[in-house]
Write a structure and sequence with these properties.
This protein has 398 residues and is α/β, with parallel strands linked by helices. The protein has a domain of 273 residues: TIM Barrel, CATH 3.20.20. The chain is built from 13 helices and ten strands. An eight-stranded parallel barrel has the order 1-2-3-4-5-6-7-10. It has a two-stranded antiparallel ribbon with strand order 8-9. Helix 9 links the parallel strand 6 and strand 7. The protein is globular, with a radius of gyration of 20 Å.
Length: 398
């Protein structure tokens, strides 16, 4: 959001000065304004991977400038104890735009390596949508903080056209599209390249999430995301920011130790490739199990940010259907602890008990950057209102 005609930040000679996050924040705001005037409101000719959040539009500049201003007064983190950014409606206190913890890693962006770590911040939560449900994003736009990452599911009953349309709509709404690429659903390398080329050209995602996918037999040459990575997808499409998936409660078709070996391999591969990594977990009901999984992750030397999958408020019956579909364990004991009544499937419940138990389990553990990924099973607007309220009330988890 600060590009010269070469597609990079115009920088003068570096001056020595005392380290001061506040001064850096003022300088960042100044550069944003100067470069916005220089380039106008278009991002023509800028290569993929050179943009903050993959988008050079004025709304993203405003969001970044706002985040930088919020940091000026608090030593580098727009926390709940200091000035909160304004939402699109002008109200103070949008929880989704704050840093979760001062010690966390930087913003999910492709701002090259020009932004000092003290000026970077990640959205506290991301969302997920399917191509068929994309109208919900536009309908809920007024309550979703600008720049919020929105994952685009890769379903077998949707085509690339629907995925592209979803990415364009998410970008049009001032949010960050994050396409999920299902390795086993890709018919060929050409199929993969055509899809990514179109996504980059039409929506400029900063990050892609690479997964194996559900089909029993692969539709093309890729059996899993490891083979997709080995096949050169990062180099061909200049991808620098990658999401991978974790399964704290296991996977119904893959052994636990196999999951761990694959996760370790991908984290190391992406580190060697110079990519930033973010781990999004499958949703679950067992808060204690998730805390133990994150501890094992950190003990294994993986310090990437983790987005914990949280199901939004929904009917009990719908939650249990999705749990069966995704292979999530829902024993009677865990269901009761979560607040699910197995005899009243029409009851609408939120994950408040789960969130409280998770918060208690993570408190004071020093487990690094912990974020959230909202699965809005009961609707995007209801889910966003719930998580915004909880994040304002709860504050940092670790």
């Amino acid at each position: 959001m600060r590009l010269s005609d070469t597609g990079r930040l115009a920088r003068g000679p570096r001056k020595k000065r005392a380290s001061c996050p506040g001064m850096e924040g003022f300088a960042f705001v100044k550069r944003l304004r100067q470069n916005r005037r220089h380039r106008g409101t278009r991002a023509g000719g800028v290569p993929h991977g050179e943009l903050i959040s993959g988008f050079a539009g004025p709304s993203t500049d405003f969001c970044l400038e706002r985040q930088a201003k919020a940091r000026i007064g608090d030593g580098g983190c727009a926390s709940t104890a200091h000035r909160a950014p304004r939402s699109r409606s002008g109200q103070l206190g949008s929880a989704g735009q704050r840093c979760l913890n001062p010690g966390g890693t930087g913003m999910d962006s492709s701002f090259k390596r020009e932004i000092p770590a003290s000026q970077q911040a990640r959205a506290l939560y991301s969302l997920e949508v399917t191509g068929k449900a994309i109208a919900e994003v536009a309908a809920a736009r007024a309550v979703i903080p600008p720049g919020t990452p929105v994952n685009i599911a890769f379903l077998g009953n949707e085509d690339h056209g629907q995925r592209l349309a979803a990415a364009r709509e998410i970008r049009r709404c001032g949010l960050e599209p994050v396409p999920i690429i299902s390795s086993r659903r890709l018919r060929s390398q050409q199929d993969c390249d055509d899809l990514l080329d179109a996504l980059i050209r039409e929506a400029a995602p900063a990050r892609f999430i690479l997964v194996g996918g559900d089909p029993a037999s692969p539709a093309g040459p890729y059996r899993d995301s490891l083979e997709l990575l080995r096949g050169g997808i990062l180099e061909r499409h200049r991808i620098r920011h990658v999401g991978i998936v974790g399964y704290p409660e296991g996977h119904p078709k893959i052994a636990t130790e196999t999951l761990w070996r694959a996760l370790l391999w991908k984290a190391d591969f992406l580190k060697q490739a110079g990519c930033s990594v973010e781990i999004t977990t499958q949703f679950g009901f067992d808060a204690d199990g998730i805390v133990l999984w994150i501890k094992r992750l950190r003990e294994a030397g993986i310090d990437a940010p983790v987005r914990i999958g949280v199901p939004g408020p929904a009917d009990v019956g719908k939650l249990l259907r999705f749990a069966r579909q995704f292979g999530v364990a829902a024993s009677a004991g865990i269901a009761r602890r979560y607040g699910l009544s197995l005899t009243n499937l029409a009851q609408r419940v939120g994950p408040d008990r789960f969130f409280d138990r998770l918060s208690a389990g993570l408190a004071g553990q020093g487990l690094g950057c912990i974020l959230f990924h909202l699965y809005p099973f009961g609707g995007i607007e209801d889910g966003v209102r719930w998580i915004e309220t909880r994040l304002r009330d709860t504050g940092p988890l670790s």
